[in-house]
Amino acid sequence: MFRFAFLTACAFVLPLQAHAEADWPRTIAQPDGDLTLAAPPTRVVSTTPSLTGILLAIDAPVVSTATAVVGPLTDEQGFFLQWADIARERGVEILYPNLAFDIEALIVSDPDLVVASATGGDAILPFVPELRAQGMPVMVLDYFSANWQTLARQLGRATGHEADAERIIADFDARTRAARDDMTIPAGKVSIVSYNFSGTYSVSRPTSPQAGVLAALGFTVTGLPEAMRGDVTRSQDFDFISRENLAAAIAGDGVFLLNGTEESVKAFMDDPVLANLPAVRNGHVWPLGPTSFRVDYYSGLQMVETVAPYFPK
């Protein structure tokens, strides 16, 4: 068995288009105008924990990051579990806790690049004009619009760490191929289900980042049946539905549970609403691991490491 070293609403895609030469300064296209960076940043501040892991993976000079509300997905500081150890090793400080935006903290951190999100619980889009008025270069990304590899390339370009972005992508691909070569993938399709996460229920689309990791391992991920489309209450990478409609929405022969642990598998298997699912009857329900909620380089590898032992050759 191999081991991995480890210490997670779409309005627009934000491609990095360099209008200058490969050297500096670099001009980065943003939805509200170009961002020009005169030199490689040396003090990167992340207001979005969902992107901090990618910045750390490409060795960008992250000095501080906003942190999430402490819970099952984080350590005691609010760092996401998949990159918490790396952040501590590198001395990354807390910009502000609980995703509670604090412009004074940003001013004190003296960044030469602020990385921000346009969507999600860590979005700060309404505050971006104020930050720019303070003279801070702000790069806005929408992590619902792109996989982590695309985001790594965009951030690599903005920080001068393009080679590091390509390095971690190649490393991830190589490790995934090695895992796949040691696996026997069962016949049929699989569903990825978010089961009772903060009281919600949803089924992954085949295009979600989690589905991409499983597809790289050889699985075929299916979404909910088209006939269920009218029962969707909201949709991003996952289609959200009511608990009562969950059984009808799961079309896979097997089920992977998002953020899943052995305890959540048991709860899923014991749910009377789901008792007649083929995956439940056949015991084909597997946890994706507690860091699978937001896929980056670290959590993606942890997903592979979690899944591979279920299907040995």
Could you describe the 3D structure shown?
It is globular and about 60 Å long. α2 links the parallel β4 and β5. The protein folds into 2 domains: 151 residues, Rossmann fold (3-Layer(aba) Sandwich); 129 residues, Rossmann fold (3-Layer(aba) Sandwich), CATH 3.40.50.1980. It has 11 helices and 13 strands. Helices cover 32% and strands 16% of the residues. The chain starts with 25 loop residues before the first strand and ends in a 6-residue tail after the last helix. By secondary structure, it is α/β, with parallel strands linked by helices. Keywords: Ion transport, Iron, Iron transport, Signal, Transport. One of its GO terms (cellular component) is outer membrane-bounded periplasmic space. This is Fe2+-enterobactin ABC transporter substrate-binding protein. Its main location: other.
Which short descriptors sum up this protein?
single chain, about 325 residues, alpha/beta, Rossmann fold, 2 domains, six-stranded mixed β-sheet, five-stranded parallel β-sheet, 11 helices, about 15% strand, globular, disordered N terminus
Overall 3D shape: globular
Helix content: 25-40%
Q: Provide the CATH top-level class of the largest domain.
A: Alpha Beta
Structural class: alpha/beta
Q: In which order are the strands of the major sheet placed?
A: 10-11-9-8-12-13
Q: What name is given to the CATH topology of the largest domain?
A: Rossmann fold
Return the average pLDDT rounded to an integer: 91
Number of domains: 2
The residue ranges in which pLDDT falls below 50 over 5 or more consecutive positions are 1-21
Named CATH architecture of the largest domain: 3-Layer(aba) Sandwich
H/E series: EEEHEHEHEHEHHEEHEEHEHHEH
Distance between the termini: 11 Å
Number of helices: 11
Pfam families: Peripla_BP_2 (PF01497)
Protein name: Fe2+-enterobactin ABC transporter substrate-binding protein
Domain Fe/B12 periplasmic-binding: 43-313
Subcellular location: Cell envelope
